[in-house]
């Protein structure tokens, strides 16, 4: 992805994040709490019959974490949990510089270079780690 | 001042280090002292009957005297070497307060304390049923005697405060508080991590019961610190560690006797290199003069605040605090993004909540960038910072 486009996607999503708003309390909640950085985001996901029917987030985080959360939500709302996990797997492959399916990821491709900055990798995977926490809670 | 004494500047030509609240650089004298110990007279302390071991004893015990003088304690037996402030605070809480306090006794702290002056008390609250309460702060986050009096009750037994806080950087009126505390039979514990390195400390004049501080924040090595306690209080403090160095004898009959202070509270081989390094650090600071250091920091801080005023998108949260600490954010930019941006220009500042996670209840922003100054910082470094902050419109081009 072209550098300018990449930056534009990230800045857009960091300054005007998708679904960074409160939508009610019948959602499954998980927090990013992470020892090594100060990003602190609550993720709220509503799942019915294995389908993610809605999701939102709040909290404070750096541009990478905020934008990645925003883009992740755009990508997973309306999908089934197993479909979201597929995206997650491709995303992790990309972050770890393995071969991956670009088409599955859409705007998430903006983070394809992130592995060059070790300290930013954590920020980029935080949203998906937190999403997985909500799935685990749902499956319990 | 004195930048030529610091190898970190020699080895990192353009580095601007504004994170002295986290740790400080070490002057050559401190480094050489440690290298000398490891290369010329390595031996254990309080053990041998041979020359180099006696030399270690001398060096180690004379450090106690240097520390005693530095904080104006009465006796060297009131100076205990520890691993640092955190270790000292835990000794105070679990070695003394655990036996001194009873259920329902009240301990007063504030929401701007560092974790090491919070969590030990929270644990003791769970263990003993004491009650930890918060002194309300003024609108500029200060502790005043008036505010303190509002929460003191007949059950208040301890006031435990940082002399200088690590986020706001306010200097507490410890002497005044301690006078009031003692007239009400309340003990006063002082976390000196951010004050002893920057201000003249006088435990006798302030009449402090316990004081904790770390060497690494005052030009000394990591892993070593000091616990000061009044003689009569340390006499009844329970060691948290038992073993070699702290016992006089023990028998298979279980008969035993522990040593007198201070050794009773220093079980096991201590951080000897660290202690010797601490001595050099204190001598170095004394040679410049603590008053001069404080004055210099205040001048720098004023200069920094003045310059920050010129930048529209900078918000400073503690303009009125008296120490060399400034916390700020760039408008609409997350603190960690700002610190990464500054890092791009070799400027080190700390982003986050600075181990004081309750501060957010007070200043309503969870995360900030912190600049903490020390004697080797300069106006030129501040000018560079200001220039970089002024150009921060392209922050995302730099960090993304
Ligand atoms: C006010 C305050 N108290 C305690 C500590 C803990 O010091 P140490 O990590 O050296 O034990 C710090 C260090 O950041 C501090 O700033």
Percentage beta strand of chain B:
15-25%
Which CATH architecture of the largest domain in chain B would you pick?
Answer: 3-Layer(aba) Sandwich
Q: Supply Rg of chain B.
A: 22 Å
| CATH class descriptor name of the largest domain in chain B | Alpha Beta
CATH architecture type of chain A: Alpha-Beta Complex
Biggest chain contact: A-B, 17 and 15 residues
Helix content of chain A: 40-55%
Number of beta strands of chain B: 15
Unreliable spans of chain B are none
Which overall shape of chain B is indicated by the principal axes computed on the Cα atoms? globular
Domains of chain B (count): 2
Please indicate the percent range of residues of chain A in DSSP E strands (runs of 2 or more). Answer: 15-25%
Give the integer mean of the pLDDT values of chain B. 95
At CATH level 3, the topology of chain A is: Sufe protein. Chain: A
In spatial order, strands of the major sheet of chain A run 1-2-3
Largest sheet, strands/sense/barrel of chain A: 3 strands, antiparallel
The level of helicity of chain B is 25-40%
Secondary-structure element series of chain A:
HEEEHHHH
Describe the structure.
Chain A has 140 residues and is of the alpha+beta class. Chain A contains five helices and three strands. A three-stranded antiparallel β-sheet of chain A has the order 1-2-3, covered by helices on one side. In chain A, helix 1 crosses helix 2. Chain A starts with a helix and ends with a helix. Chain B folds into two domains: 29-287, Type I PLP-dependent aspartate aminotransferase-like (Major domain) (Aspartate Aminotransferase, domain 2, 3-Layer(aba) Sandwich), CATH 3.40.640.10; 289-399, Alpha-Beta Complex (Aspartate Aminotransferase, domain 1). Chain B has helices spanning 7-11, 28-39, 51-71, 85-100, 119-128, 145-151, 174-183, 203-206, 231-235, 272-288, 290-309, 335-344, 360-363, 379-390, 395-399; strands at 16-17, 79-82, 106-109, 131-134, 156-162, 187-191, 210-214, 225-229, 247-250, 256-258, 314-316, 325-330, 347-348, 350-352, 368-372. Chain B has a seven-stranded mixed β-sheet, with helices on both faces. Chain B has a four-stranded antiparallel β-sheet with strand order 11-12-15-14, with helices on one face. In chain B, strand 6, helix 8 and strand 7 form a beta-alpha-beta unit. In chain B, helix 4 (85-100) runs parallel beside helix 5. Chain B starts with 6 loop residues before the first helix and ends with a helix. Chain A binds chain B through residues 6-7, 10-11, 14-15, 37-40, 60-64, 66, 119, and chain B through 332, 334-337, 340, 351-353, 366-367, 396-397, 399-400. Bound molecules: pyridoxal-5'-phosphate. Pyridoxal-5'-phosphate binds next to helix 4 of chain B.
